[in-house]
Amino acid sequence: MSSLPIKRYTPEEYLEIERTAEFKSEYVSGEMLGMAGASFAHNQIARNVMSRIERQAEAGPCQPLGSDQKVNVGASFFYPDVTVICGKPEFLDNRKDVLLNPTVIVEVLSPSTEQYDRGHKLNKYIQIASLRDLLFVSQDEISIEHLSRQPDDTWLLRVVTDPDAVITLDSIDCGLTVTDIYARVEFESSN
Question: Is the pLDDT of residue 2 over 60?
Answer without folding.
Answer: no
